[in-house]
Amino acid sequence: NDNTMNIYILFFFIWHLLSFVLCNKPCSREGSRIVRDYFTRALGPIFEKNHIAIPLECAFSPMRDVFYRQELHKLKISNDKWLCKFCNKTFLSEYYLDMHFVNRHNNTLLQVKRFRICF
C-alpha cells in the first residue's frame, strides 16, 4: 500500500534527521540516498510543473544536501561498473565508489554548516 510506504519513509526521514541533529551522529550516506531519492520523486515533479526551483531555505533543497555534489559526480555505466566523474576512476559497485569519495574526495562535501542538512 502506497500510503503505508509513505508513512514509513516519512518516519524514517524524521528519525534520521532528528538522530543527526539531536544526537550528533555522523550522516549516513545510504540513509540520505533513500530519503533524497524519495523526496526527489515526490517533490521534483511539483516544482518542475510550476517551473520553479526548490528554494535554499527548504530543508529538501538539493543544495543543502551534504552529499549532493558527490552524488552528481557518480555515473552508473552498468550493473557492475560505476564512474567517479571527479577523477574518472571506475568501480565495481556504488559502495566502492562511495568509499572512494570518503577517501579521495571528502573535501567535496558541503561544508557550510548553517545550510547543510543530512537526510
From TrEMBL:
Annotated signal sequence range: none
Residue ranges crossing the lipid bilayer per the database entry: 6-23
Domain of life: Eukaryota
Annotated InterPro entries: Znf_C2H2_type (IPR013087)
Keywords: Membrane, Transmembrane, Transmembrane helix
Domain C2H2-type: 84-105
Keyword Mitochondrion: no
UniProt-listed PANTHER family: RE51073P, ZINC FINGER PROTEIN-RELATED
Name of the protein described by the UniProt record: C2H2-type domain-containing protein
Species: Rotaria socialis
